[in-house]
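[Meeting: bench + compute handoff]

Bench side (C.D.) handed over the final construct sequence. Compute side (W.E.) agreed to return the predicted structure before the next meeting so the bench team could plan truncations. Sequence as handed over:
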Amino acid sequence: MKGFDLTMKLSIVIPVYNEKATLAEIVRRVQATPYEKELIIVDDASTDGSRDILQQLAVEADNIRAFYHDRNQGKGAALRTGFSKVSGDIVIIQDADLEYNPIDYPELLAPIEKGLADVVFGSRLIGAAPHRVLFFWHYVGNKVVTTISNMMTNLNLTDMETCYKVFKAEIINDIKIRSERFGVEPELTAKIARKRCRVYEVPISYDGRDYSEGKKITWRDGIAALYYIIRFRFWD
């Protein structure tokens, strides 16, 4: 990849829960990116056949490391497992549902490669990148929790809840995740702010799903996010 330090290795952590329809395709897209990389895929006790697909994918590619939870615990738990296994220089969180596209990796990696950032957030709400038009109240909820998170962390993010968070490995190796579900997003944000990391945002594309297509996050997770924002501001 032009401009990228070819001696650096990516660890791409992919939490999976009931993503049978998209798992093989997201792995294909990640594998198509021109980097040295490992794919750390954590199946969080899927019941739809995702585990069988993952087992086959791991046989077919020697850079896939697959891990399996015996019971469903949530995205935070899957990331905790995945982060504990990374061996690369840079860690990328990648959802398995095709909402986020690995073609955005060059933009996400650039601030770290240039020595400007320790952590990069991919924002769905800045720049001219295309995105699917979906739910107004999801947008409002995201703005509310991002604003409150910013108040607690003194960061100025536009999209705290984004999946695309990229870290230097030494940063994520020094963070202990306690959240089990989607509270992991405000938890990670609070902890990188506490560590005074250099944080950048870059625009990303977004192809959001609706609930008929398997979207899992609900308004209850938005309420929970407010709790976690307060919790990880004042307590760990």
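W.E. noted at the follow-up: Strands lie at 10-16, 37-43, 64-68, 90-93, 119-123, 165-168, 199-203. C.D. will use this when planning the next construct.
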